[in-house]
């Protein structure tokens, strides 16, 4: 009798404890003007910071809570001003939502069907076969000086004609990160670079500079052909990163085709 009474009391106490624990886990980090900030948002931010080498400390959590509250206040202010209702805002939010969902579906696809070594080797063999079918290929080592305007580019070319070195001008005038290496971009096959540049480069002798500035998008390039060599197909192991990207793109294309074939588009 006593045992049953004790068990009933323990059961009631345990139920209360479990309920309390559940409520604690679901308790918001903060409530800002009546809007709750979910605890999972704090947990996610803590995990992200820990993954970057920080320690999970009360100080870190306090700073993250402050940031979450600040973000919620700014969101509320934007809503108060009606900025969330603007067509441009709605379009931007739609694009962000689409991009996120696309990324999630692709991640799900590759989580359920990871890329295998055999798949990478198949893609490698396909690319090697295509390269061999293209005949003798040449690789070009390209250096460039990137300028904002055609006038700036022509000014650089005038400076070269007066005896200033390409490398020095690249370091002092170029807008491209390659300026730290004197404009050197590395080795490329013709189809790996912008057509406007490749069409010029393939006709240059090693060491020669383009006769005129070349426009690519909004910028102007002064291009130098630093070297030329027969293309050597890289080995499988050193190609893995590029092969991974190619397989991802192939899988994405195949998934999109499957969805398109099954869709009703009017």
From TrEMBL:
<keyword id="KW-0697">Rotamase</keyword>
<protein>
    <recommendedName>
        <fullName>peptidylprolyl isomerase</fullName>
        <ecNumber>5.2.1.8</ecNumber>
    </recommendedName>
</protein>
<keyword id="KW-0413">Isomerase</keyword>
<comment type="similarity">
    <text>Belongs to the PpiC/parvulin rotamase family.</text>
</comment>
<dbReference type="InterPro" id="IPR027304">
    <property type="entry name" value="Trigger_fact/SurA_dom_sf"/>
</dbReference>
<keyword id="KW-0732">Signal</keyword>
<feature type="signal peptide">
    <location>
        <begin position="1"/>
        <end position="24"/>
    </location>
</feature>
<dbReference type="InterPro" id="IPR046357">
    <property type="entry name" value="PPIase_dom_sf"/>
</dbReference>
<dbReference type="GO" id="GO:0003755">
    <property type="term" value="F:peptidyl-prolyl cis-trans isomerase activity"/>
</dbReference>
<dbReference type="Pfam" id="PF00639">
    <property type="entry name" value="Rotamase"/>
</dbReference>
<feature type="domain" description="PpiC">
    <location>
        <begin position="137"/>
        <end position="227"/>
    </location>
</feature>
<dbReference type="InterPro" id="IPR023058">
    <property type="entry name" value="PPIase_PpiC_CS"/>
</dbReference>
<dbReference type="InterPro" id="IPR000297">
    <property type="entry name" value="PPIase_PpiC"/>
</dbReference>
<dbReference type="InterPro" id="IPR050245">
    <property type="entry name" value="PrsA_foldase"/>
</dbReference>
């Amino acid at each position: 009798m006593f045992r049953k009474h004790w068990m009933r009391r323990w059961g009631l106490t345990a139920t209360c404890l479990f309920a309390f624990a559940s409520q604690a886990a679901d308790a918001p980090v903060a409530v800002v003007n009546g809007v709750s900030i979910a605890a999972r948002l704090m947990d996610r931010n803590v995990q992200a910071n820990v993954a970057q080498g920080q320690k999970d400390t009360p100080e870190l959590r306090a700073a993250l809570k402050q940031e979450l509250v600040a973000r919620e206040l700014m969101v509320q202010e934007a809503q108060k001003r009606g900025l969330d209702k603007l067509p441009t805002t709605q379009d931007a939010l739609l694009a962000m939502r689409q991009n996120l969902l696309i990324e999630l579906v692709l991640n799900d696809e590759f989580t359920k069907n990871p890329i295998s070594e055999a798949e990478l080797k198949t893609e490698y063999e396909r690319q090697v076969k295509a390269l061999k079918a293209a005949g003798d290929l040449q690789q070009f080592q390209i250096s460039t000086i990137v300028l904002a305007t055609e006038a700036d580019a022509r000014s650089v070319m005038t400076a070269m004609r007066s005896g200033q070195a390409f490398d020095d001008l690249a370091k002092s005038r170029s807008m491209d990160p390659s300026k730290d290496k004197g404009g050197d971009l590395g080795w490329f096959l013709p189809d790996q670079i912008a057509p406007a540049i490749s069409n010029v480069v393939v006709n240059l002798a090693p060491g020669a500079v383009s006769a005129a500035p070349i426009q690519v998008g909004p910028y102007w390039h002064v291009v130098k052909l630093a070297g030329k060599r027969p293309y050597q197909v890289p080995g499988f192991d050193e190609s893995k990163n590029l092969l991974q990207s190619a397989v991802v793109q192939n899988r994405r294309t195949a998934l999109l085709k499957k969805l398109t074939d099954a869709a009703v588009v009017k």
